[in-house]
Amino acid sequence: MFSKILIANRGEIALRIIRTCREMGIKTVAVYSEADRHSLHVRFADEAVCIGPPPGKESYLNIPRIISAAHLTNAEAIHPGYGFLAENAEFSDICDASGFTFIGPKPHMIEAMGDKARAKETMKAAGVPVVRGSDGVVKSVDEARQIVESIGVPVIIKAVAGGGGRGMRIVHKIEEVEQQVAMAQAEAAAAFSNGDVYIEKYIEKPRHIEIQVFGDTHGTVVHYNERECSIQRRHQKLVEESPSPVVTEEIRNAMGAAAVKGSASVGYVGAGTIEFLLDKSNNFYFMEMNTRIQVEHPVTEQVIGLDLIRQQIHVAAGGKISKRPRRPEGHAIECRINAEDPEKDFRPSPGMITSFHAPGGYGVRLDSHVYAGYMIPPYYDSLVGKLITFGGDREEAIDRMQSSLDEMIVEGIKTTIPFHRALMRNDRFRNGDFDTHFLETFDWKSPQ
User: Fold this and answer.
1) Which residues, 6+ apart, have CB-to-CB distance to 43 below 8 Å?
2) What single string gives the DSSP state of each residue in 152-205?
3) What is each CA distance from 324 to 59, 275, 433, in whole angstroms?
4) pLDDT above 70 coverage of the chain, percent
5) Is 207 labeled as catalytic in the residue annotation?
6) Identified catalytic residue from 16, 207, 292, 336
7) DSSP track, 73-104
8) Residue 327 predicted with pLDDT over 80
9) Using CA atoms, how far apart are residues 344 and 300, in angstroms rounded to an integer?
């Protein structure tokens, strides 16, 4: 086992990793930008190294500075968390070449799954159901038009290196193809320095279901059931839960087996998530794979009773994982509390938190790095914390979440707490009657 791990990230995920390392008796090194000098991950790590100015590209995305910090502190392994460099194959490769264990998959695994078009072909070859569409990258507008004519509208254009809904366009009319392809390519090039796109048949009113997978260096790949991620705004998840209110044991077993089969086809090692679309007839289709720990991993931890960060570290150190998938027990739900103003179209709301109170009680968990007097910087994502509640069933978990949201106090900035309170009261949500387009018609300000 490692004696010291450097955490190449910030905020709540860095603090989350530090907590598990402490339990395992592993020393930790925090890296931080000048804007995060007073962050809790800096305070609670055993050592801390400033790696640059506030902008991410000059600090948390600066590979040479992170590697230098690891050398300086004699770290043995590097945990990337999520975001920033977590799915960067070059960073994984440089870590290995520099003598550090990258707590995540190998570079070729990240590359195979990071390119969405290539990942789709890999999954298709492994026998995992995929949505009809282009065979890889679309090379011209004429080719795009031919593909759309053959599979019919609506279709969705996606960036091969995409994420968070960027480089994504839905086409409902054949005459819109040329314009939408050009717009998707331009947005993808600006966001990811890669303008390649591919086309898929657009599944209307789907549910977004993801399967948590884990692989070890001994050839074992398992899954830890599903998470429901359909409550999202502009392709950004806001609420996640496990198990899904619509996934039966039969669907869970089939989807889990497909996820394991697809992951095993690339010899996957570490934590990963296979994301599927589930249509109204309960047919599921591969969408993408995330080669990292997910923001929403706590809901899985709550229902299977397993620390996934500990599992990541255990696997990276050469340990074996259990071959038996764990059955979900109870129900967990997570609300992402963001520093955003829902009254003003969820506009970011950075600033000083003047008052803070965390909810508590049985079945309540808050993963957060903030405190009264903490400054939410404008340079990074707006996550204040993840509020997770657990209950014997879905109704109890929602009731506990509603009570916890009423108890939580964050003053000095605007947050999404009012939005989440309204959602927990909504009858359609409570009945599990929603899909990925639910928030397009949900008026959170109206009486429920």
Assistant:
1) none
2) -S-EEEEEEEEETTEEEEEE-SGGGHHHHHHHHHHHHHHHHS---EEEEEPPSS
3) 40, 21, 32
4) 98
5) no
6) 292
7) HT-SEEE--SSTTTT-HHHHHHHHHTT-EESS
8) no
9) 32
Residue 274: strand pairing partners = 211, 289
> Residue 66 corresponds to which tokens in the numbers above?
């992170």
Q: Are strands 284-290 and 270-278 parallel, antiparallel or unpaired?
A: antiparallel
Measured in whole angstroms, the distance separating CA 281 from the mean position of its chain's CA atoms is 26
Per-residue DSSP letters for 204-263?
SS-EEEEEEEEE-TTS-EEEEEEEEEEEEETTEEEEEEES-SS--HHHHHHHHHHHHHHH
Protein fold of 132-201: Dna Ligase; domain 1 (3.30.1490)
Other C-beta atoms lying within 10 Å of the C-beta of residue 7: 27
Give the C-alpha separation, 23 to 34, whole Å.
28
Please determine, looking at this structure, whether the domain spanning 4-103 carries the CATH number 3.40.50.20: yes
Residue 367 phi/psi, 5° resolution? -95, 105
Which residue in this structure is represented by tokens 């000098």?
Answer: 37
Quick: pLDDT tens for 277-289.
999 889 999 999 9
Closest CA to 328 of 225, 397, 247, 229: 225
pTM reported for the whole predicted model: 0.90
C-alpha span between 335 and 240 (Å, rounded)? 7
Query: What residues are paired with 390 via a beta bridge?
Result: 332
3-state SS, residue 292: coil
Sequence ranges of the domains in the chain: 4-103, 132-201, 207-440
pLDDT in tens, 8-44: 999 999 999 999 999 999 999 999 999 999 999 999 9
Fold identical between 4-103 and 207-440?
no
The CATH number of 207-440 is: 3.30.470.20
| DSSP structure string for 304-327 | HT--HHHHHHHHHTT----SSPPP
Other CB atoms within 10 Å distance of the CB of residue 149? 11
Q: Quote the CA–CA distance of 47 and 4 in Å, as a whole number.
A: 10
